[in-house]
């Protein structure tokens, strides 16, 4: 019986790549604790396992009177008495099963930690194995699983919520996510809510870097480093903004990311389940960067306070709601994208401010080589078109203005 147990242990150690001596030491320590309780030993026990036969020996520890440590009040030396029970090998076999399962589990988690701890920030593709009310299990490959948590932050403030708004997962569904954490099995920190039983790898679909990695997969210029993703701002599941720049002056970075007829950005949007993605041009000039970040709204003027990291943006009256966005979403994402506090005003309310501006402030329309058509309709809304070169009006309203300025002849024959 004992020799068969040792043969099985050795075979399992070779199969699972576990050190034989380490396993036997763990068994001896576990058995010593158990026999201390079973035999009601006051000073503990020491257990040895014969490496050849597998026979178990249990020794009762008896403290020596002259080995008392005055500082700690504990004995340092013990005599041993053989108290091996008849069924020691049977109890050892039961303990071996639990210890082996624990060692195999920890060994697998340690191997996963060593492999994936250096891959934080990488994108992975997996399939959904199981979903619970709090998280989903994602299969990366055979024997390697990840956890995508979506805990209720009000109930579990210490947990994560890495699922975008409105997303739901089904069995065998293929998803892409980014690795945000790998749990260390040897960490001294206390685990939270059955963390030891959950997968070691934690992935996210709300992290801004997921958008960056998706563009690397879909846009060769981003992968090669010709186009650089400078900043990303996300409201997961709703809308995102991506600022890009190009190392090559001849290459349009926005067009490269959007792709022919929007094919590249459409693939990214499809992976994000319909999340709207705005790709804008990055500029080292803070004023131009803020103006681009507020796209699709058109901006008239940007006043930048570098000391306070503050930007005042003046937009046409009919562009104010578009610049702010629904519930302030467009302005909020632009502020995250540029890292600046943005204050948006329309031209009517900011007329006094604009008159007091020094000449060196940034006028976006003037830098673009033109100005807006000065025609104001009956409703009081100014024309959105750019004026023609050398004229105050666009092509349409220039003709209307010429007709309104033309004198009407009193000769009725002139109308024929």
What does this structure look like?
The chain is α+β, with helices and mostly antiparallel strands and 416 residues long. It contains 13 helices and 15 strands. It has a five-stranded mixed barrel. It has a four-stranded mixed beta sheet with strand order 14-13-12-15. It has a three-stranded antiparallel beta sheet with strand order 1-2-3.
Q: What is the beta-strand fraction?
A: 15-25%
Helix fraction? 25-40%
Shape: elongated
Q: Low-confidence parts lasting 5 or more residues at pLDDT below 50?
A: none
Mean pLDDT: 82
Classify the oligomer: single chain
Order of strands, widest sheet? 4-5-6-8-7
| Secondary-structure-derived class | alpha+beta
Quick structural summary:
The protein is 33% helix and 23% strand. It has 416 residues and is of the alpha+beta class.
């Amino acid at each position: 019986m004992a020799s068969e147990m040792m043969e099985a242990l050795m075979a399992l150690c070779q199969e699972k790549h576990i050190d034989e001596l380490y396993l036997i030491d763990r068994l001896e320590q576990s058995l010593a604790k158990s026999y201390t309780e079973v035999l009601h030993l006051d000073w503990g026990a020491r257990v040895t396992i014969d490496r050849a036969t597998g026979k178990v020996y249990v020794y009762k520890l008896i403290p020596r009177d002259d080995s008392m440590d005055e500082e700690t009040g504990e004995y340092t030396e013990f005599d041993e008495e053989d108290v091996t029970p008849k069924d020691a090998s049977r109890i050892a076999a039961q303990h071996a099963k639990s210890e082996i399962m624990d060692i195999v589990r920890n060994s697998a988690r340690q191997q996963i930690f060593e492999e994936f701890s250096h891959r934080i920030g990488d994108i992975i593709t997996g399939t959904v194995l199981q979903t619970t009310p709090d998280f989903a299990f994602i299969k990366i490959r055979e024997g390697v699983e990840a956890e995508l948590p979506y805990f209720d932050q009000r109930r579990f403030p210490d947990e994560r919520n890495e699922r975008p708004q409105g997303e739901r997962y089904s069995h065998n569904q293929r998803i892409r996510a980014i690795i945000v954490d790998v749990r260390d099995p040897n960490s001294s920190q206390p685990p939270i809510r059955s963390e030891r039983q959950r997968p070691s790898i934690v992935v996210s679909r709300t992290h801004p870097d997921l958008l960056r990695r998706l563009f690397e997969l879909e846009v060769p210029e981003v992968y090669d480093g010709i186009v650089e993703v400078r900043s990303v701002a996300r409201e997961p599941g709703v809308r995102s903004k991506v600022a890009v720049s190009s190392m090559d002056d001849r290459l349009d970075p926005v067009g490269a990311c959007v792709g022919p007829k929007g094919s590249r950005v459409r693939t990214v949007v499809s992976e994000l389940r319909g999340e709207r993605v705005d790709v804008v041009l990055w500029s080292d000039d803070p004023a131009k960067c803020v103006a681009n970040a507020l796209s699709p709204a058109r901006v008239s003027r940007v006043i930048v306070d570098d000391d306070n990291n503050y930007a005042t943006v003046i937009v046409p009256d009919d562009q104010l709601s578009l610049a702010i966005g629904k519930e302030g979403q467009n302005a909020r994402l632009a502020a995250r994208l540029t890292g600046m506090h943005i204050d948006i005003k329309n031209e009517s309310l900011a007329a006094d401010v604009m008159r007091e501006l020094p000449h060196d402030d940034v006028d976006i329309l003037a830098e673009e080589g033109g100005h807006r058509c000065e025609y104001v309709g009956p409703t009081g809304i100014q024309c959105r078109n750019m004026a023609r070169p050398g004229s105050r009006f666009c092509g349409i309203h220039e003709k209307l203005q010429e007709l309104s300025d033309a004198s009407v002849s009193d000769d009725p024959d002139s109308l024929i």
